[in-house]
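tool_call: predict_structure(chain=1)
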Amino acid sequence: MTPAPPTAPKLPATKPVDTAKRIRTVLWALLAFIVVAGVIGYAVLTAAKPAPTAAAPAADAQLVREDSHRVTTPATEKAQLVEFLDFECESCRAAVPLVEKLKKEYGDRITFVNRYFPLPGHRNSGTAALAVEAAAQQGKYQQMYTKMFDSQPQWGEKQDSQAALFRTYAQDLGLDMAKYDATVAAEATKDRIRKDIADGKALGVTGTPTFFLNGEKLTLNSEEQFRQLLDDAAK
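tool_result:
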């Protein structure tokens, strides 16, 4: 008897190909590749990109304005020294004796100019600037300037408003108090100080005191260096 031929092995049944599904899968894979490649490319370009340079000063920024406080008036001006200051700044207060000495030595040749730059971290520096400006409107800028720095240990670094204390300083100076109060509250006075701050920021001021000699921002290391710079500028 002839043996039966071997039975062919059964192959698993194949499912019909879903062409549309396969196309969708390929498209999604391609899209994912494009997105990933784009992200990597952006990261590479960003890493290679040079760091942004500091913004140029605003076109309308001015180092000295018509209403800036000139605290020396030389007959023949050889140079200008501009100081951006904060009445609550301890470094500004520490610099006062030297600045006053330099005014006496160079004030006949150099115009010393003060500009307001109250720092946001000082709760009462803006209030102090308003008080000083209100006094300035009555011809007592230097007197209130001196009083603020002399009394800074008393009111500096406090979190509650010192406006009432500053008002007593105005009274001690014999100011017209109705005019003083109106000037402190006036929007024009606040704008005057805001303009100083805006000019300072545009010119690269980030802290106080910051000095500019004939338009050049100074990096000071010692009194001797400061004095030499003034000597050179006053010739």
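agent: Residues 1-17, 25-56 have pLDDT under 50 and may be disordered. Proceeding to next step.
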